[in-house]
Write a structure and sequence with these properties.
The complex is a heterotrimer of chains A (about 500), B (about 100) and C (about 475). Chain A is about 40% helix and about 15% strand. Chain A has about 500 residues and is α/β, with parallel strands linked by helices. In chain A, helix 2 runs antiparallel to helix 3, helix 7 packs antiparallel against helix 15 and helix 9 packs across helix 12. The termini of chain A are close together. Chain B contains 4 helices and 2 strands; from the N terminus they run ααααββ. In chain B, a hairpin with a 2-residue loop joins strand 1 and strand 2. Chain C is α+β, with helices and mostly antiparallel strands and about 475 residues long. A 9-stranded mixed β-sheet of chain C has the order 2-6-7-10-1-11-12-13-14. In chain C, helix 12 crosses helix 15. The chains are: A alpha/beta (about 500), B mainly alpha (about 100), C alpha+beta (about 475). Chains in contact: A-B, A-C, B-C. Chains A and C meet through helix 9 and helix 10 of A and loops of C.
């Protein structure tokens, strides 16, 4: 068996299975074989659901044999970030405190993917509860960047980005609270989309910061990301923040035409970054102009406040959302004679350092007497940031920025939490303002590492972001270039 | 928004029910202090008359009809409970809750 | 003591709303179900679950808001109140904080014959916690109650005695039952009361340090516990001591309260607006529907019964104690041919009807004798068709068999005899048949008058009109 199918696009895979060129079982087995060969080096997967995946593939094949209609993702192997709840399959959110927990229900997005015929291979690694930018904060293991095993895959959806880049799944779902889909997508040379807040239901997403969290696709092409988004987007009454808005045909929106599109370049996003990143973004803007787009220089004056606002709002909400991990109803408990002690020891042993830091920070910010100066102030600053974008979108249709100031960094490169947080500077505003954001590869550094361009759109205008993203992909994307560090590995099994 | 004292760090850890070892407490003191320093930029912003953005997209609360759905069977509900006595969850004894409706019967 | 000291009392009352499902999830509500049998992923606080707000809870809370003349916020907000406790699955309670649904209402409390208005600071929606029971060195947790919808009713600190606090609670209890907002069964924990108590010297403006009394879950406990706490505080202050701000648990068996062990950290609930729940919007349409469905309130009926029907305050209070009884009374009055029947109908409702219901163990609403029948019976007595005494027999029979009073009177020939000619003949016969007694009566033996009345009644099976019988006897016997 060859792993020829490993890098097929989602659309292509589904088409071939529907046409009977290959069985869903063969595609799934190929993916499982490739995981067996490569994942020991990469560490993308936390849990494989081999039986479930083969059963789902067999069901697709049986449907096809019976000439029953197939879902748009029928037989396409996907991987889920481990903070997405899966019925009967362990879900840890990268935390020891949930080690061994088997949920009794499926997240909305998991139901939707299964309904479209996707084959869930398993759960992929992430920073604990989505808190981090390198996946180094996973309680279980590091995940390595398939372009350079000495570097991080980004985070927090680093398992997703690594698995997609390395061909260990055809697409993956991640979550993005402050850049957790877009930044790892940029680091691993794949496409990552954070939809508009409320576009995708959060039912079954282990909450990090409820007012910022969104689920979105990581895929190898913009087309694949559009197709996966199509099948997870839409109203869900179980999430009170889910938007009851029409879902356009995202694939049909990929016209390849950017003539007349107004692309905003905010000055504040081009101040500090690596030269390679700056050069790649310049080429990207140029390519858009060559295809008829119009560049609009603009200012988003409150940009520098996004970092402090984010690092108040997100930890405050996290400290609240993580209060339920108390060792009473599920998860790991450290027994003690006294209840208060049981709580403190359970949580002390169950949470890793970054999660503890954010719980502490959030608890501090919500204390009585501090609320106005911290949490409320940060929420007011969010309004200012949102207003910046509202104004900007009078003059442009999308905003183009780098996804991250650098390409993937080496393990342990960020010496302090603040150093790590500073790397998120370009991705945070999107979440604070609730906008859709896409990261699309736009070239390689001199050292051969992927660089991501970020496109931010108007609320609910994923279609335009995807359309512009696909033009960037075609003009300056990575084409058929595959991650170098795993070249040759697993090609034949 | 000055740096945190060791005592404050201990109080917050207590409030968050987070046991921290002495070295963790020291590290927390330094790191949280450094992070708080970055928040000073916020204090300087004039936010008078700026509404707080509680929700990224403005919307009203939807209402669910008052229709009951089947519950989880107790065995499934308690499947992950670390300690049980029959269909009850067992925890170490505690002083009674001090909050409104949380008073034990 | 109370000449120098003025008690200041505020109550916080939690009322369980009578919905079928929980406030933020469709898990069912049922009292006494097996432990942990009424849960779902949200009630258990499982990761990934999100709250979905129950329309029924809003409708009931609005009803209470409108009935208490509260200001209803067009946009109110849910907030998270954080504390760690095993019966609080998420580590926070979804409640309302600085933007509650209802503010500045009032409840009219019946004190004696009058109505006193007690101000309400707020009424807000929140979810209940589960139950912990302490078993030796451990606690056992049952989450069936977790997520049951509550309203918390908070009074202004302007209740001035334990008795008034008791009456407030009775009025609230009556009101929520009246409006079918809650069954409010205190034994089932459907109505729970905490009291904030302080004392100050009369004439002083500043409030004294208050203590919070918990676990006072019966009308009697509320009064006893507050009475006791007022006395304790005065004793402490007069003894040169200071009141500590603390929570005290009432021990009903020992009739005393004790300070709860203070927790290791001060309460800091870290409230913030719940990001999972957008603002709760109440529009004009909702309000109109609530107003349309709102019945006359008990305090209004209490006054009407006295004003329109001339009832005593006691009778009026008894009637409004239960909505079904007051409705029965109103229906009987409405069925009565004259507007003046209220007083007599009230006597029959409070006397015969309640007595019969008590003996049969039945509910007013299911009374075998409908209001119109009782009304008809009263009319038969008023127009002299039957005597009051016969009326009681007819009532008993009608209550037991369900046969209409008029039919019973007709069938059994119970119509009162008021014709002086007919009665005169009977009296003549009886006087003639008892010459000795007639002689003795005429000789001054007054007691024998009753003998003659009894004979007439015996002869007529009680149907003789008592007044006419008496008049005719006097005439015939000559004195």
């Amino acid at each position: 068996m060859t792993a020829a199918s490993a890098f097929w696009s989602v659309t292509d895979t589904a088409r071939r299975i529907a046409a009977g060129e290959i069985s869903a079982r063969a595609v799934t087995e190929a993916a499982l074989a490739r995981i067996a060969a490569l994942d020991p080096a990469l560490g993308a997967y936390l849990a494989l659901d081999r039986d479930g995946a083969l059963a789902a593939a067999a069901a697709v094949d049986a449907q096809r044999a019976a000439n029953a209609p197939l879902g748009a993702l029928a037989g396409v192997p996907v991987a889920l970030k481990d903070n997405l709840v899966t019925r009967g399959v362990a879900t840890t959110a990268g935390s020891k405190i949930l080690d061994g927990w088997i949920p009794p229900y499926d997240a909305h997005v998991v139901e939707r993917l299964r309904a479209a015929g996707a084959v869930v291979l398993g759960k992929v690694n992430c920073d604990e509860f989505g808190m981090g930018s390198s996946t180094e904060n996973s309680a279980f293991k590091p995940t390595r960047n398939p372009w350079d095993l000495g570097r991080v895959p980004g985070g927090s959806s680093g398992g997703s980005s690594a698995a997609v880049a390395a061909g260990l799944c055809h697409a993956s779902l991640g979550t993005d609270t402050g850049g957790s889909i877009r930044q790892p997508a940029a680091f691993c040379g794949v496409v990552g989309l954070k939809p508009t807040y409320g576009r995708v239901s959060r039912w079954g997403v282990v909450a990090f910061a409820s007012s910022l969290d969104q689920v979105g696709p990581l895929a190898r092409t913009v087309g694949d990301a559009a197709l996966v988004l199509q099948h997870i987007a839409g109203f869900d009454p179980r999430d009170a923040t889910s938007l009851d808005a029409p879902v356009p045909d995202f694939t049909a929106a990929l016209t390849g035409d950017v003539a007349g599109l107004r692309v905003g370049l905010p000055a504040e996003y081009f101040e500090a970054m690596d030269d390679d990143v700056r050069a790649a973004l310049a080429r990207t803007a140029e390519a858009l102009v060559e295809r008829g787009a119009e560049i609009v220089d603009l200012s988003l004056p409150h940009t520098k406040l996004a970092l402090p606002a984010y690092y108040l709002v997100a930890p405050a909400e996290a400290s609240s959302n993580l209060a339920r991990f108390d060792g009473v109803r599920y998860g790991k408990r450290v027994e003690a004679a006294d209840l208060v002690d049981m709580y403190a020891r359970t949580r002390g042993a169950g949470f890793g350092p970054e999660v503890k830091r954010r719980i502490m920070l959030g608890t501090y910010a919500l204390r009585s007497g501090y609320y106005d100066a911290f949490y409320k102030k940060a929420q007011q600053v969010r309004t200012l940031i949102k207003r910046d974008f509202d104004r900007a979108f009078h003059y442009c249709d999308v905003v183009l920025t780098p996804t991250a100031p650098t390409a993937a960094f080496a393990f342990g490169a960020k010496a302090s939490p603040v150093d790590m947080y500073l790397g998120d500077v370009f991705t945070l505003s999107c979440n604070l303002a609730g906008l859709p954001g896409l990261s699309v590869p736009c070239g390689l550094t001199a050292g051969g590492l992927p660089i991501g361009a970020q496109l931010l759109g108007k609320p609910l205008d994923e279609a335009t972001v995807l359309r512009a993203g696909q033009v960037i992909e075609a003009a300056v994307g990575l084409g058929e270039r595959r991650p170098t560090a795993i070249a040759g590995m697993g090609d034949v099994a | 928004m000055a740096a945190l004292t060791r005592k404050e760090v201990e109080e917050i850890a207590q409030l968050a029910r987070l046991h921290l070892e002495p070295d963790e407490l020291s590290r927390m003191e330094t790191e949280l202090g450094a992070i708080l320093g970055h928040f000073e930029a916020l204090a300087a912003v004039d936010t008078a008359n700026v509404p707080a953005m509680t929700h990224a997209v403005p919307m009203d609360l939807r209402l669910r009809p008052d229709t009951p759905a089947p519950s989880l069977p107790p065995d499934e509900a308690l499947a992950a409970a670390p300690r049980r006595a029959g269909d009850l969850i067992v925890v170490p004894a505690s002083i009674p809750s001090n909050a409104g409706s949380g008073t034990p019967a | 003591m109370l000449e120098t000291w003025e008690p200041v009392i505020g109550l916080e009352v939690h009322v369980q709303l009578a919905t079928r499902s929980k406030i933020f999830s469709p898990s069912a509500i049922e009292f006494g179900a097996p432990p942990n049998s009424l849960t779902d992923p949200l009630v258990l606080g499982l990761p990934g679950t999100l709250p979905m707000f129950n329309q029924g809870a809003l409708a009931l809370a609005l009803k209470l808001g409108v009935a208490t003349s509260s200001q209803i916020r067009a946009r109110s907000r849910f907030a998270r109140k954080h504390y760690f406790y095993p019966d609080l699955p998420k580590g926070y309670q979804i409640s309302q904080y600085d933007e509650p649904l209802c503010e500045n209402g009032h409840i009219d409390v019946i004190v004696g014959a009058t109505v006193k208005r007690i101000k309400l600071q707020r009424i807000h929606l929140e979810e209940d916690a589960g139950k912990s029971s302490h078993v030796g060195q451990t606690s056992h947790v049952d989450l069936n109650r977790a997520g049951v919808p509550l309203v918390e009713v908070v009074t202004a600190p302007e209740i001035t005695s334990a008795g008034e606090a008791g009456e407030f609670l009775r009025s609230l209890h009556r009101l929520v039952r009246w409006l079918q907002i809650s069954e409010a069964d205190m034994e089932k924990g459907q109505l729970r009361c905490d009291a904030n108590v302080s004392v100050r010297r009369r004439g002083e403006d500043r409030l004294g340090t208050r203590t919070e009394l918990k676990n006072i879950n019966s009308f009697r406990f509320v009064e006893n516990a507050i009475e006791h706490e007022i006395a304790r505080q005065i004793r402490v202050i007069e003894g040169g001591g200071k009141i500590t701000r603390e929570t005290r648990l009432w021990d009903a068996e020992r009739g005393q309260s004790a300070a709860m062990r203070s927790k290791e950290d001060a309460d800091d609930y870290r409230y913030f607006p719940d990001p999972d729940l957008p603002p709760l919007v109440v529009d004009g349409q909702m309000m109109a529907a609530i107003l349309r469905g709102l019945p006359e309130l008990p305090s209004a009926r209490f006054e009407r019964y006295q004003r329109v029907h001339g009832l005593s305050a006691d009778d009026a209070r008894t009637l409004i104690n239960e909505r079904a009884l007051a409705d029965y009374f109103d229906a009987a009055v409405a069925a009565h041919p004259r507007a003046t029947g209220g007083k007599l109908i009230a006597n029959w409702v409070l006397g015969e009807l309640l007595g019969a219901l008590h003996r049969s163990g039945g509910e007013v609403a299911a009374s075998p004798m409908p209001p119109a029948a009782l009304s008809a019976l009263v009319a038969l007595i008023e127009d002299g068709t039957i005597s009051g005494k016969i009326g009681k027999d007819v009532f008993e029979e009608s209550f037991t068999s369900g046969e209409p009073p008029a039919a019973i009177v007709e069938r059994r020939g119970l119509k009162q005899i008021s014709d002086p000619v007919v009665l005169g003949e009977i009296i003549d016969r009886i006087v003639a048949g008892n010459p000795k007694q007639a002689e003795a009566f005429r000789g001054g033996k007054d007691g024998l008058f009753g003998f003659f009345v009894g004979q007439v009644m015996k002869d007529t099976q009680g149907r003789a009109n008592p007044q006419i019988t008496s008049d005719l006897l006097h005439k015939r016997l000559g004195r």
